[in-house]
Amino acid sequence: MKATINITLKSGVLDPQGKAIENALGQLNFSGVNSVRQGKLIEIDLSETDAAKAEASLTAMCEQLLANTVIENYDIQLDKSE
Amino acid sequence: MQAAVIVFPGSNCDRDVAVCLEAATGTPPLMAWHGDASLPDCDLIVLPGGFSYGDYLRCGSMAANSPIMREVVAQAHKGAAVLGICNGFQILTECGLLPGVLMQNTGLNFVCRDTRLTVSNAQNAFTHLYQQDEEIIIPVAHNEGNYFADESTLASLQEHQQIAFTYGAGDNPNGASLDIAGITDKSGKILGMMPHPERRAEAALGGEDGKRLFTGIVESLA
Known about the structure:
heterodimer, A: 82 residues, 3-stranded antiparallel beta sheet, 3 strands, B: 222 residues, alpha/beta, Rossmann fold, two-stranded antiparallel sheet
């Protein structure tokens, strides 16, 4: 079973890289960009076939290693089509 | 007393800090590899600066989960003193021995220069040889030194005198909250700091402001 995990900075946490991208887009004359936040995307292929067990396992992975919950949120998307 | 330096793949200040520890204790410290699952009982454990595991995922996150760190955390809970410098500070926050997190510098640049520090708490096991509010010069060299924690954590750090070092007025190199350069746990025996005291610990390096940190903790543990 494949999973995609989006890790984003919590609102209120300053994102210097997002700010730099925002400024660069402005310099390229892309107008109407209100704000940019940069995050991480992690793809994981699991041997687990039970969605609930996979989700529990992925949540533990996020809490222990993949995200730092002091500053980051994580969102787990499971691809159940396989 | 037994001191140890943990060596991770990508550590690059391990031998510098070993020189400082040997000068303070009279004997070379134990150098322990990150993959070791056991560590002899230590009085002082140092997590050195560098780029452990190439800073992959987040600075310090891989190192915080390496086999030796289970042993380091267990010994810290039993009362061993722990010093984390730069990447070592990042590892201490990632493994939960210290609160907060070190984020990317707000200026987006790697900053490598001397900084003026104020000794905000000269009463803990590491800082007692400094004067309260003494100004010292210690160099920084980092890209992720921007200390961040939520408001209640920052208030708690202040309330319990856990802020050991702050950057001098106008000399904050990374945007850190409350100008924090180094913090301790509540006991004052676990210190994490972004500046490198081992890089200013003898006259040949331009100054000795960092030396008292090492002699101070060794005296405390004697």
